[in-house]
Every structure is written in structure tokens, then in C-alpha cells.
Amino acid sequence: MTAERQRTGIGRLLISCPDRPGIVAAVSRFLFEQGANIVHSDQHSTDPEGGRFFMRVEFALAGLAQRLPELERRFAPVARRFGMEWRFSDAERVKRLAVFVSKAEHCLLELLWRVRSGDLRAEIALVISNHPLLRETVECWGNGIPYHVVPVTPETKAEAERRQMELLGDDIDLIVLARYMQILSPAFVSRYRNRIINIHHSFLPAFAGPNPYEQAFARGVKLIGATAHYVTEELDAGPIIEQDVARVTHRDSVEDLRRIGRQIERAVLARAVAWHVEDRILLNGNKTVVFA
Amino acid sequence: MTAERQRTGIGRLLISCPDRPGIVAAVSRFLFEQGANIVHSDQHSTDPEGGRFFMRVEFALAGLAQRLPELERRFAPVARRFGMEWRFSDAERVKRLAVFVSKAEHCLLELLWRVRSGDLRAEIALVISNHPLLRETVECWGNGIPYHVVPVTPETKAEAERRQMELLGDDIDLIVLARYMQILSPAFVSRYRNRIINIHHSFLPAFAGPNPYEQAFARGVKLIGATAHYVTEELDAGPIIEQDVARVTHRDSVEDLRRIGRQIERAVLARAVAWHVEDRILLNGNKTVVFA
Amino acid sequence: MTAERQRTGIGRLLISCPDRPGIVAAVSRFLFEQGANIVHSDQHSTDPEGGRFFMRVEFALAGLAQRLPELERRFAPVARRFGMEWRFSDAERVKRLAVFVSKAEHCLLELLWRVRSGDLRAEIALVISNHPLLRETVECWGNGIPYHVVPVTPETKAEAERRQMELLGDDIDLIVLARYMQILSPAFVSRYRNRIINIHHSFLPAFAGPNPYEQAFARGVKLIGATAHYVTEELDAGPIIEQDVARVTHRDSVEDLRRIGRQIERAVLARAVAWHVEDRILLNGNKTVVFA
Amino acid sequence: MTAERQRTGIGRLLISCPDRPGIVAAVSRFLFEQGANIVHSDQHSTDPEGGRFFMRVEFALAGLAQRLPELERRFAPVARRFGMEWRFSDAERVKRLAVFVSKAEHCLLELLWRVRSGDLRAEIALVISNHPLLRETVECWGNGIPYHVVPVTPETKAEAERRQMELLGDDIDLIVLARYMQILSPAFVSRYRNRIINIHHSFLPAFAGPNPYEQAFARGVKLIGATAHYVTEELDAGPIIEQDVARVTHRDSVEDLRRIGRQIERAVLARAVAWHVEDRILLNGNKTVVFA
To answer: Which of A261, A144, A147 is nearest to A213 (CA)?
Structure first.
């Protein structure tokens, strides 16, 4: 127990507040006084004069797991003084993901592989789909990730979402829409606000909505892209986390764009999910601050 | 003279026609029979069954300059047989560019440098601007490129375009809008159809119209881009020739986006202009076939 | 049967010979006379004067499968006339791959996924490893790809390679070394000359040999890369097919380089294998001509 | 004067020392107590346990210019306590560059343009060349940058370097070798240690030494690159600051590689120079920490 109390853990502190002098001094002094050693620190100010300040600190602290509640209690007055939105997290707590899919498997496979390889430090707690198609894909990984089929029709949507919420329970850190082809209701979105990441298969804001590859082909663009963003009530308009593109030419058919695009989609989604899991993303209105 | 007749030149043949068997055989046989040696050849078919066929052939031929008219006469019946749009060009004829600018110099400078370094094999015949600002930039290059100031106001636009057409004369191969901040009239555009290239400072179709960097900043995209396209009557909607992007982060202000974007704009525009000058671009409706 | 005879197939003709006038005319005329319609054609000459000429033609032909032997017989005299190295292939014949692995699964998984998704049109006939570790990975795909363990030690290497050759049999089109950590003997390499592709985890020629990521970290490079190349007797010195890089920073440890590098390795290897399978690669001495 | 004393300036503090708890707290507290507001801060530790710690802080302070000596005096004891290498700088002091060139103008032009456009906040104090060739290029910019020709032969090298040092005088912040084709003596290098940046036209460590494009062409690489690094006594082996690459194909001749490479060289060099000028580069042995 004593040994355990002494085990050094890695903690994270995320802060967002109005910018003004003294914030870094106050935070770093607080951590120092708790015996924490700052391992990594990032900060950003939208404007030193009256802008907003964002900070992410990673620190090493003996007995972190046990001391988190005490840290939070002690930090509260500092936070109040600067009007901070803030949270501590234990880097060693493995976050639990729910992955929503339909029929396309590439994004799901990417997440499964990165979890397995350790590139993505998270647990895929369950997979929910409106189709049975990918059940075998999930089961063949053999580590017992449950695959739940929840059919969705316009009529049954409300009921389906109730069922999905049941399955999600209360301890899911992030919902990943890995090419999930259904639109979530505002009620669902608001319940999991800033905890739903979607991959859209275009370089937003270009080609929002359905069939982006057909749209891209019709316009004759020379690059196609993918965009990972937090889901909001407005379709494909949430805060952008990550984007990337690949070159295409006149030779590429719509089917080629899909094939090329799959590689971008899975890479972009995987990066966005990793950043969320590592507490690297802060929200600034409808934009993101990503301390990658 | 005889020696000159024998001088081997490089010619280009560009073809666009309905696809059907025998086109390549007929074209390559024709060139072979004329004594031409195919140096390079590219082709593309949108669909072997009832699609459109595009071809670009570069060939070496003794006495090319003198023999072009004869080649064209002899090729006409072949072209008729396949319903071809076609043209021959002499690769050694240096194309004449007119560059339109306003106050931003980076795209103009890029073109001046590339012509001087030989990376862009063309002649900048004149520069036309609605501002005197860049006169010195052009003159300091000392090779006597004329710089014409043609002020434009809503009232004088028609008169200004008449003046511009006078200055352009009849032997300009390409008009380059190098961050020219005026919109050309449909009459002007149609007179130089497929001979006006514009650089738009966004990844079209995202952020068309004014202030694309402000739009990109407001949306919080993670990549910014530039697009070179042929100018049509519809603003920023012409056939896309080339696009590229650069990564940006939450740290970048609108001014940073402009600074980063300048590098993309000049590179993208220079590539598009080079491809046009080298007869590498064919039009397929509102899209381009680029044999780069 | 008659119907089958008439079924239109896609064929490919690959040619390499000394450049001289008339090659394209002769080839395209030949194909036209056989009733073939050229669907796609690429060519390259290292120098129209006394250089080497490379060509890849894709053509549609009724009853291709049945007519290939006849095509080859008829083409022989044309080929002789120009001193061609040449071969026809039936695009619809699915090539058979043997994948060699050790303990790293990312490249193997990438190939399995791309075959399954149809992005890579090939059959993985067998997997050979010097370790049992990845047996489950292969079996979980359930489509019965055999996984053979052939341990290798300095003493047993010759015997191991005999065993590997037995397993490979006579109808393997390509051996893919998907992070296979053993060096093949010259005898083995020469038996499968130009049919073995290796992925090296550096931007060759930098960091050849063992531990490229450690080497890259020690040198402090700002980009790391991967290289897919044909295997020759000289280690990491064979013809390069494809390379790519990713950006790294001072923050990245050797372990980070490995993680980032895995993404490049699997993408570069998959592209190289696809190009080989689609007959897009021709050899020019120790360099490749890739008609991608 | 009082007004001037109150003018708020931007200062920078760069630190490098053995890592241990309390550094950030001590530094941020110090700055806070001086009335400075931290505008931006980056840090890096090679290893929290016994590694080396690097920090760059940008801060706003009233009357900075006048208060720098006092700041340094007051910070000295803090620095001593942690065994820091450190320096303060005034972000508003424009650094003075000396550019060394030979016959290639692209890198020089890039620097001239970026200074003029304000993308690079520095002053080009003089240009030194072993050839008269680029005199006109420099003079045409009309802002009076002196161009000095210092011929170099094996016999006269020592004398030439003495002349160069005279011309450089005592207040040059950075020497930029913008495709300067002479090797500097160890004596010269050690006098300006960590103040000479060279652009090498390959992706180091590949193709060090002369004719990298010929080497790249001979090896058949699919990407070519450029590397900006600090010059040390060992040729092309100094700390790498920045690298980038561009794709090439079998179609590209050595001359094409040079043309494509020029675009990479000038971009890579310009970024490296900007980072040096903005005090973003710290040295970690033979590697760089770049707080870009």
C-alpha cells in the first residue's frame, strides 16, 4: 500500500480561461508545491490582451492515483481566481471507446489494429452497428469485444437510440463514428457533447453531406481529403480536429477516389481519436486547440 | 537553309475525340510515315465504351518548323475520320504571357524567377495592373518587360477592358491572373476562353469568393490551400488545373495563413502555367486532363 | 463456350527495347489488327537517341484468355524486329503472393486487408514465418490462408530455404518480405529474381542495414521514411520501387519513430505490391520504371 | 523617455539545463515577479529522469529594451541554481544576416523576397560571393545591400577567409550559405560556431558531398530532398535544422531533379533561417530542438 502510494504516475491538467498575467506562474508553482514534476507543457493564447488562454500540462507525481481528489480540491481556489475551466486526468486510466459502424470496415479495422499494436492506448468497449455485416470482423480479433446490431429506420430511430444509450451505459469516454451512416438526433448528440468524433470523407467544408466522392469527381478537384470532427447538431459543421488529403488525377474514377480516400479516412480518424484519448484537444468555440 | 530544313525539332500533337478502336494505331502510323519519332506519349479514356479519348504526343521530326503546315494538311483526313479536336504545336516556339497583378507581388515574382531560371519556358510579354505599386518590381528585372497601369472602377470597367485588350494585342498565348483583384467581364472571358488562368487562395470549392483566409480561419480548418483554374463566366468555378495545401494549426492567425498561403499560391500557379505552356492540359467539360 | 470465346478480357503487353522510330506504330498497329482496343498506354524513353524504350499497354480483346498463346506467336516477329524483351499478361488472372513475416504484423495485416477489401487484386497463397507468433492473426481471417513456421538459424539456413522453396512450389508470382527479419541467400534470391519485394524501414540509401530507426534518431533527421525495393544479392541495394516519408520532431523517441514509421512502411509496401501485381513495374538496370 | 520606458516589448528567454523538478515554476515565477506576461512557452525534456531540459519563453514586458540588462542580472542566480545555459533576447531587435553565394541565385532570391515581404524579419547586411555573377540580382533590389566578390582558390583560401571576416565585422548574427560552393576552414567555422547555416541539396545523410542530384539519379530514388543544417568542421554532418522532399519519377533527368530540387532547397533554407532568427532553435549535442 505504502509502496503503491509512492508509485509515480503521470497526470494531466487541462485549463482554459481568459488570458491575463500570472497563470503559468500560478499553475507551475501549484504543481511544484504538490511535488509534481512537469514532464510536458503546452499553452496557447488567442490574444495576450483579452484573449483566451489554453494550457495542457503533463506531470509526474508519486501516488498520483490516490492523490487526484486531493489535487483537485487544492487546485479549486487557484482555478477560481483565474476563472478557469479545468480538469485533471490520470494518464494511466485507459479510456473506453464505443465504435459505431455500418458496412465499411476500414476505419473500424484501423482502430482495432492500433489498439492491439499499442499505438492507440484505449479499450474498445463495444461496437454498435445498424448492420450485422461486420460482426465477424470484430469477433475474429478474439478479444471478446461485443458487437451489437441496432437496426435503424426513420420510424424506429428514437427507439434505436434509446437502445444504443442502454448499451453505452455510463462509463464510455468517447463515441467514434467510424463511417456510421446514420444521423444522430440532437438529443443523442447533446447527451454526449464533445464526446462523439465523426470521420467525414471530404475536405470540409467542401463536399459536406452525402456522396462527397461523387461531388469531388464531378468538380474535378486534384486533391481529395477526409475530416475528423466533433459531432454537433448541425451536420458536418462541428469543430474540426484533423484533416488530410491525397492527390488524385483525371485517371481516377469515383471508385478510385473511394479506394484512395479510405486510406486518408482511417489515418485521419485514428489520429483524431488518439489525440482525444491523450487529452490533447481543447475546444475554442467551434474550433479546436490541438496540442499534438 | 537545307541544313535548317533538316534541323530536328520537337512537335506536339493534342487530340480529343470519341473513344473507339484504332485511334492510337492511326495516329502513330501517321507520325511514323511522316518520319517522326514519338518521344513521349500520354493518353486517357474516360470510358473505352462510348467515352471520350484524350491524347498528347511529343515527337521529333527533321525540319519540323517548316513542315508543320504540311503535317496539319496531311493529318486533317485522319482527324476527320475520328471526329477529332486536334492541334499541332512547335515545342520550340516560346509562348507569350500577359500577367495581370494588383498589389501582391509573390505570384508575379515567382513567374519572373522561373522564366529567368529557365524553369518556365515562356516569355512574359507584358504586365498589366490596376495599381502602379509593382512597377519597380518588374522594371528592376531590367529585361524591359513593360508594366502598364490600367485603373479599374465600376464605372470605367468596360473602358479599362478595352484598353487591356489593346495592350494584349493578338498574339498572347495565355493571360495569368497573378492575384489580380478585379473580376473580368463575361465578354473579356469569352474572348480569351481557356487562355486565362487564375490563382484562387483557397482549396476550391471550399471558400470561394472574397477573403478565403478569413473564412478558413473562422471555420478552423487544419489545412489551407490554393487552386489554379481556367477562368469562366462563373466566379471561381472554372476547370481546376492544380491544387495544393499546407498544414496550419490553432496557433496561426489570419496573417499567418496569408503568409503560409503565399508559398502555396505561387507554387500552384507556377505549375499550372508551366503545364499550359507545355501543352499538357486538355479540357473535358468543366474538368481538366493534365498530362503532367 | 462460343460465348466464352467472345468474352472480352483485358490484356497487358510490357515491352523494353532499344529506342528507335516506329516502335509505337508497330505495336499499336499489331494490336489493332488483332482486334484489340488500347484502353491505356504508357511509355518512356531514357533517350530517343540510343536510349532504352519502355512501354506498357492495356487493351481490351474478345476471347483474350483463349487467344493469348496465338497473340504471343503472332507478336514474336514484331518483337524480334525491335529486339524487344516483352510479355503479355491476362489482367484477370489473379496473381499468387507468398508473404514472409517474422514478429511484426502491421505489413502483413495491411496486405490481408487490402486483398479482402479488393484494393489489392491478388491472392495470398501462403504465409511463411520464422516464428509462430502471427499464426492467429492469419487464421482469424478465416479464409484458410496456410501459415507455415520455418525456423531459421545460421546452421539451418540452407535447410530452411529448401523447405521454403518446397512450400512456395512453382506457381508463386511474388514473394513479399513484410518485415521478414532474415537475410535470404544469393541462391534463393537468384531463383526468384525480380519477384521478391522487401520493405526497408528507412529512406534508402540512408540508414541501410539494421536498426534504421535508431540510426535516424541518433542523426537527428526531421523526416523518416520507408523504401520498397526488389531484393538483390546486395543488402538493401536493389531497385527502388517506392518510398515515402513522415515528419518527426525532437519530441519523438526511437519508439515514436517506430510507431510513425509503421504507418509509412505498410503504405509504401502495399503500393509497391499493387504495382507489381498490376504489371506496372519495368526494370532499367538497377532502377525501376513505374507506370503508376 | 518615460513613455519609452513604458513601451511594451516582446522578449525571449532560452534555457537549456539538466532536467529536475521546479524549473518551470522558478522561471515563470521570476517572469511574473518582473511584471512580464508569458505570451508563448515551449519546453522539451529528453528524459525527466536525468535528461536535459530545454525551454523557450516569449513574454511581454513594459520597457523591455531598457530593462534587459537588469533582467539578466536578476535572472543570473536562478540560472546558477539550475546550472542553466541561457540567454535573453529582444524580439524587436532585427538580426543581421550575411549571405554567401556562388552562381545559383534561387536561395538568395528566396531570402531577399522573404525579407522584403516581411515573412522573414531580418536584415540582409551584405552578400559575399566568390563570383561576380549575382551582383546585378542583389543590386536590382535597390535597397543598397552591398555585394562583395571574394574569389577563392586553394592557394588564396586563407587570405580570402581573412577578407570575409573583415567584411563580416563583429555584428553579424547569422551566416547563410545559400548554395555557396566553397568549403569553409575549421578556423572559420569555429569562429562562427552555431551561426552558420548551410543548405545541402539532398536528404541527408543520403548523398552527402558533391553532386547529390547525380547520386540520387544514379540510385533511382523516388523522392529527392534538401537539408538545412548548422555547419561544423565535418562536411554535411552538422546538426540538422529542417528537411523536406519532393516526389520524382523515372521520367526525371538529373536536370529535372535540379529544377525540382531548387524549389525544396529555397523553402527548406528559408524556414531554417526564420527559425534561427526567431530564436526557435536550441542545440542538443549534434541534434536540434526546434520550437517551431
So the answer is: A261
The pLDDT value recorded for residue D1 is 45
Q: Which residues of D153-169 are buried (b: 16+ CB within 10 A; e: fewer)?
A: eeeeeeebbebbeebbe
C178-232 pLDDT, tens digit each: 999 999 999 999 999 999 999 999 999 999 999 999 999 999 999 999 999 999 9
Do B286 and A220 lie within an 8 Å CB cutoff?
A: yes
Nearest to A239 among B206, B220, B239 (CB): B220
Q: Which ranges constitute the DSSP H helices of B102-179?
A: 106-117, 135-139, 157-168
Using the Cβ of A250 and the Cβ atoms of chain B, whether some distance falls under 8 Å is answered with yes
> What mean pLDDT value characterizes chain C?
95
Give contacts of B207 with chain A, Cβ < 8 Å.
Answer: 205
Q: What is the DSSP letter of D49?
A: T
In single-letter form, the type of residue at position C230 comes to: Y
Q: Closest by alpha carbon to D289, among D3, D8, D15?
A: D15
Q: What kind and span of H or E run contains A13?
A: strand A8-18
**Which domains, ranges and CATH numbers included, belong to chain D?**
3-90 (3.30.70.260), 95-290 (3.40.50.170)
Note whether C41 contacts B: Cβ–Cβ < 8 A.
Answer: yes
Give the Cα separation of D149 and D136 in Å (integer): 12
Nearest CA in chain A to C118: A259
pTM: 0.96
Nearest-by-Cβ selection for B259 from D105, D119, D142: D119
Element spanning C45, H or E? strand C37-45
CB contact, 8 Å: D263 with chain B? yes
The whole-angstrom separation of Cα C55 and Cα C17 is: 9
Question: In this complex, do A205 and B207 lie within 8 Å of one another by their Cβ atoms?
Answer: yes
Cβ-defined contact of D142 to B140 (cutoff 8 Å)? yes
- Summarize pLDDT for D109-152 with one digit per residue, the tens: 999 999 999 999 999 999 999 999 999 889 887 678 999 999 99
**pLDDT value, residue C143:** 76
State what percent of residues in chain B have pLDDT above 70.
98
Give the residue from chain B lying closest to A245, CA to CA: B245
Chain B residue with minimal CA distance to D142? B140
Establish if D208 touches chain C: CB-CB under 8 angstroms: no
Question: Cβ C290–D249 below 8 Å, yes or no?
Answer: yes
CA D247 to chain centre: 26
Q: Which residues of A touch C141 (CB under 8 A)?
A: 140
Which among C190, C171, C167 is positioned nearest to C100, based on CA atoms?
C167
What pairs with residue A131 in β-bridges? Answer: none
Q: Is C166 exposed, middle or buried (0-12, 13-18, 19+ CB in 10 A)?
A: exposed
Active-site pick, D236, D244, D256, D279: D236
D215, D251, D272 from D258: Cα distances, Å: 12, 13, 20
| SS3 letters across D256-267 | HHHHHHHHHHHH
D279 carries an active-site annotation:
no
Contacts A140 to C, Cβ<8 Å: 140-142
Chain C contact set for B23 (CB, 8 A): 38
Asked if B262 and D142 come within 8 Å (Cβ–Cβ), the reply is no
Tell me the C-alpha to C-alpha distance, in Å, between residue C173 and each of C93, C94, C227, D242. 11, 10, 21, 41
Q: How far is C106 from chain A (nearest CA, A)?
A: 8
Length of chain A counted residue by residue: 292
Exposed/middle/buried for residue C250 (C-beta within 10 Å: 0-12, 13-18, 19+): middle
Contact D24 A45 (CB under 8 A): no
The SS3 assignment for A31 reads helix
pLDDT digits (tens, 9 = 90+) for B202-256: 999 999 999 999 999 999 999 999 999 999 999 999 999 999 999 999 999 999 9
ipTM score assigned to the predicted complex: 0.95
